[in-house]
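To close the chapter, one final illustration. This time we ask the reader to focus less on the individual chains and more on the assembly as a whole: which components sit near each other, and how the overall shape emerges from the parts.
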Amino acid sequence: MTRVADRQAPPAASLAHLVRDAGLAALVAALLAVPLLGFRLNVSAQGLSLEYRLPWILYAAAAVFAGRLLLSLAARSLWPQVRQRSRGFGARFPSNTNVIVGWVLIGGALVLPWLPFADPRFLSVATLVLIYVMLGWGLNIVVGLAGLLDLGYVAFYAIGAYSFALLSMNFGLSFWICLPLAGILGAFFGILLGFPVLRLRGDYLAIVTLGFGEIIRVILLNWQAVTNGPDGITDIPRPTLFGLSFESPFRGPLHGTGFADFLGVPYSPMQWMFFIYYLILLLALGTTLFAQRMRRLPTGRAWEALREDEIACKSLGMNPVTVKLSAFAIGASFAGLAGCFFAARQGFISPESFTFIESATILAIVVLGGMGSQIGIVLAAMLLVGLPEWFRNLAEYRMIAFGGAMVLIMIWRPGGLLSRRDPTVTLGEGPAESMRPAPAAESPR
Amino acid sequence: MTIDIFLQQLVNGLTLGAFYGLIALGYTMVYGIIGMINFAHGDIYMVGAFISLIGFLLFSALGVASVPVAILLVLVVAMVFTAVYGWAVERIAYRPLRGSQRLAPLISAIGMSIVLQNFVQLTQGARVKPLPPMVQGGYRFTLGTDAHLNVSLLQALIVFLTVALMAGFTYIIRRTPLGRAQRATEQDATMAALLGVNVNRTISITFIIGASLAAVAGLMATLYYGVIDFFIGFVAGIKAFTAAVLGGIGSLPGAMLGGLVIGMIESFWPVYFDLAYRDVAVFGVLVLVLIFRPSGLLGRPEIEKV
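The assembled structure is written out below.
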């Protein structure tokens, strides 16, 4: 197709051409800026008034002109080399690079809390990143392996969180009993939703799951008697380690023995931070281990086969609905587990934590990571969750940068940061190569 | 329920339906032509609403006293500037991704939606913007003793404008070379390109038309609800997208029908049930329809060839 040629053509444009191009871009920027940058609506007691900021239109146009010109100049001189390099990017590494990087990352994660710069703030961001890594790995089973587009993943996360909060507040069940229950409840709701809708085509599934996510949120908001509505649930008890409590002894008498007393060391809030960090690390690693093992089992292979060619699978006697249902339910159960952990870590949950933007973030982590790549998901989670959380004080610009990064990364690497979407099993080289469809339809890389 | 409440809700539902249908058209056209969910479309509608509000204030500052003239001027201004936004979003975020994996444009669209929302929040402030009612008055029909039907002038205007736009739009798609190019691109982009259709331009025009229809919806929302904020695009967007899917995505009459169905559900639900669960009802109906008619009300079933 023509677009493939477009992308690969060397940009041999003259300077005049580049200036004209930048001028056009500046014109568009000015047009975009006229209504929303040039005027500002001010709300006051007297009502609505209009503030004129017309110079901003010029600033925007000038910035876009300069930026566009510099970028295309840079692209003109550097583009061929960059293309050349990034094309060979994956092929240069030996095949076991993934395994080595994986073990290095796991080792790094294990020693991370002991490193000198690991203050409470750093550890709490790291814990948050790990929650999203786990969610990403869980959603990857649904989106990456089974190829089902789920835009309401956060619903199962919410179900896990609320099930722990409600079970522990109302029935006094401990975290360790609630954790598997949250997983089971997640899977149950996954089946409940999946059963009627999984026979739908991909994008229809997307809107139905999006709707499901909204339904769960609306119910959490309005079912005052059970969920306490928008105020959420507070004072969720902290999990214990084999009965050893991490509650602060300064807040009141402990239930049972404190962790610090048991070891005979002074109490410190860092013990709790360490504990939840390792807990989520364990949960996340369990998720990826499970997913990796599943890929080698018949069910996991059926997921990938179905993703590649549904008609072929049907004609071989597979039932697409049950295969999809298993992926959907397993993905949902991991979200339930992560939700349970989230509630335990925060000690407070409200429907506000489970909006569509969370689903979008998790999906973006999976897709930006390169679907099916476990390490890519870790990278993407650090980028999309770790960085914005670290720069929380730039609140206003944070979200714009977040959305912009999603667009830019996608344009820069449409297949994801580390793209690996090959089926786990393939036929040997040789005939299988020639049987593949022509690569033109795929991404140009 | 008495007949007057029924008719009243019917009129309200029709108004809402017209409004959702206009946004749904943008979703369904883009889906038909490049097969992607344009997640930023709801936010394009929000941008349209803001441009309309700014337009009203600007024209009143410039001394346009007559309300119909002001509405007409704002309509044109909002359509033009919102169309630029629609075009730019396609050019920046979707065109470079054409032909890559299916989820790439979706993520890029979600990113664009976040950018637009936060851009408007940054430049226009997060507070809700109120506009005093501009179009007042209406018609009152007597249906019997103590039974009246109120149709406000604004409701009549919204329905009339929507019907007029739909008619013009159907004419463009059915009868003009542009519409032909659009339908050809929708069926087979490669073949259309080989036969001399400028595919990129056709897709751009699709986005421009979708955005200007969304701008009209934004103008209507500004007038009808009287308050807007930077977050209105999300809910309106997913409802309109639901409408597009309900009617059969890719089908233009389907989008209008879907919009009507959603509008009717939204207006009749609170009469019988708890208002808070209205959105649950909307999505519930969507699931039910899709179970029994997997390609939507008016969508053609997809035939897969091996």
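Residues 44 and 183 of chain B are 24 Å apart (CA to CA). The longest helix of chain B spans residues 3-34. With these observations in hand, you are ready for the problems at the end of the chapter.
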